[in-house]
Amino acid sequence: MKQLIILLLLIIAFSIGYGKYQQYKRYNAPNINYKTIKKIDLAYYNQETVLSYYKVIEDINSFVKMQWTANNIDIRAPEDATEETKLAVKKYANKLASIKYYESKLENSKILKANGLNNKEIQFLEETGTDFKAYQKSLVKNKIKRMFNPDKALINGYKTAFIYEIQKQLNKKGFEITTDGVYKIETLNAIKIFEEKNNLFADGVLDILTLDTLFE
User: Fold this and answer.
1) How do residues 125-150 score in pLDDT, each as one tens digit?
2) How crowded is residue 64: how many other Cβ atoms within 10 Å of its Cβ?
């Protein structure tokens, strides 16, 4: 009988202690705040995006704490499947999706800046839908095209950085010619063959159409 009384007292004590622990958890809501582990760009060109990012984090943290303290629902690990819980979990998922959306933008901007881009260039990429590799390729292409002078005929033995870039690009297209920057019969023939393969006027003379096709 004595042992039974002791056991009952222990059960009661445990229940009281557990109840107080649950109450403490309920009103202190440990570790509820969302914390990102991503490296994000806080100097992003659109500061409204950064502000919105912080707003949605505050919103989700307030929502999780309210559900925990007011409705006794742990959104992150719900213990039941009531309609109220399902609705709360759905709202939580939508709020989390907003956070991930802003995070992906800010994380990508951080990566692009690590590759040397500035805010203006990142804005251009986003607004035009151009990917980073295509953007880099277009920069190289434009630099080489600016070196091209359509009014100046290339003659045998003519040596320039422009011819050097043309030779490199021809080799990337499968040709095996010397990359020395010297315009000679080897380079002319390679250009001519390239033009033939791409349904261009095959005269071995560089023009804007040949250049555009060569650097596609």
Assistant:
1) 899 888 887 888 888 888 888 888 88
2) 22
